Amino acid sequence: MNLLARPGRRLRRVAASIATAASSLAAHAAHAALPTVPSPVETAPAVGASSLLQAGFGMFAVLGLIFLCAWAARRFGLQRLGGGQFVKVVSSAMVGQRERVVVVEVGATWLVLGVTSSQVNTLHSMPAQAVPATPGATATMPDPRFAGAAGLFAQKLRDSLGLRQRPNP
After folding, report:
1. How do residues 95-127 score in pLDDT, each as one tens digit?
2. How far, in Å, CA of 1 to CA of 120, rounded?
3. Which pLDDT tens digit goes with each residue over 33-47?
4. How many angstroms separate the CA atoms of 126 and 120, rounded?
5. What is the rounded distance in angstroms from the CA atom of residue 78 to the CA atom of residue 46?
6. How far apart are CA 100 and CA 119, in angstroms?
7. Which of helix, strand or coil describes residue 46?
8. Apex CA 163: angle with CA 144 and CA 145, to 5°?
9. Is the separation of the CB atoms in 92 and 102 below 8 Å?
10. Distance of alpha carbon 29 from its chain centroid, rounded?
11. What is this structure's pTM?
12. Interacting residues of 157 by C-beta distance below 8 A, sequence separation 6+
């Protein structure tokens, strides 16, 4: 009797699990049959041609400004703020694509240097002289009306960078 009772228990357990699965399936099928309200479909906003043109022109303007600044820095050279106390560039002239002649003042001596992309050669040395006034020198002088503002700006820039003021000769 014991042998017959065991298979009956197994059969009841299997029947119970099948009944649970069937009721669960029926509940899901009933839920799917209920009428539902369709949810609104989220669409990405349309990008117009005007916004694409505006973004494109902005990008080209920024790139153009970067290339313009790079060209100006290469053409005119970058000057360090404060400069050196012992070495001062008196004059410079381009003599080729990547060659230039530079007059440098070191102490009381002027050195005439030939500068290429790979080397620097001393061409001549002579005692320092006073820089002669050229006719175009007045054109590069700052406007006296703004001299006080330029001096104030220069002083504030030196203070913010932590540089000390150079003595006037």
Report:
1. 888 889 999 988 888 899 999 989 999 898 888
2. 113
3. 556 677 677 776 777
4. 17
5. 46
6. 11
7. coil
8. 10
9. yes
10. 59
11. 0.34
12. 81
